[in-house]
Amino acid sequence: MKDFSGKLAVITGGGTGMGRALALQLVAEGCDVAICDVIDENMAETIKLCQADAPQGVRITAHKCDVSNEADVLRFRDEVVAQHNRDHINLLFNNAGIGSGVSFVDGPRDEWERTFNICWFGVYYCSRAFISLLVASDEGHLINTSSVNGFWATIGPGSLHTAYSSAKFAVKGFTEALVTDLRRTAPHVKVSVVMPGYIGTSIAINSGKVMGKPDPMDTPAEQVAAMRRRIEKSGKDLTGVTDDQIRGMIKAQGENFRDNAPTSATEAANMMLQGVKDERWRILLGEDAEVLDKMVRESPEEAYEESFIKRLRSQSSWTLG
Question: Lower CB count within 10 Å: N or C terminus of the chain?
Answer without folding.
Answer: C
